[in-house]
Amino acid sequence: MSTIADAIKEGRDVVKAARDLAQTVREARRDHEVTKIERDKIKLALAEVLEESGDLIGKETVAPAVRALRASATPELSPEDLARGAYAAYGDSVGGLNYQGLPMPTFENLTDKIRSAWIAASLHVRSMVLGA
Questions:
Q1: Which of 11, 35, 38, 67 is the most exposed, fewest CB within 10 Å of its CB?
Q2: Is the torsion defined by CA of 8, 10, 15, 16 positive or negative?
Q3: pTM strictly above 0.90
Q4: Under 8 Å CB-to-CB from 62, ≥6 apart: which residues?
Q5: Residue 107, Cβ neighbours under 10 Å: how many?
Q6: Which residues sit opposite 97 in a β-bridge?
Q7: What are phi and psi of 104, to 5 degrees?
């Protein structure tokens, strides 16, 4: 059975997680410049921490901050750039070969239908990740 003391301890754990995240970011910034992608990942991690705290202090209290963090972490990439990146990652994971064992065409050499499918899939994944 959970008690108020358990909830307070969990709240302190959430605060500790946020402080640990901030310290990690400070240390990383000392060693090298933090890229936009890294900043976006940090924002999404912080949004997760806040979302967890919503169970303690009320989801309606943290929801605006979670939405704002997720929205500000949206990559400034066009849908085609996202799809091109996903296609490249897929190619890397299969050794650059298609299902027939032949070299994969470049993204630009895909048919319009296949390129559009990669764009649609990439946009769907982005909306899932960012909660948009």
A1: 35
A2: positive
A3: no
A4: 50, 51, 53, 54
A5: 17
A6: 103
A7: -70, 140
Long-range contacts of residues 15-21, Cβ cutoff 8 Å, at least 24 apart: 17/49, 17/52, 18/46, 18/49, 21/45, 21/46, 21/49
Domain segments of the chain as ranges: 4-72, 79-130
Residue closest to 70 by CA, chosen among 7, 129, 21, 16:
129
Q: Which amino acid would we find at residue 95?
A: G
Token pair recorded at residue 67: 């939405």
| Residue corresponding to tokens 């999404």 | 44
Place of tokens 């400070």: 26
Q: How many CB atoms lie within 10 A of CB 72?
A: 13
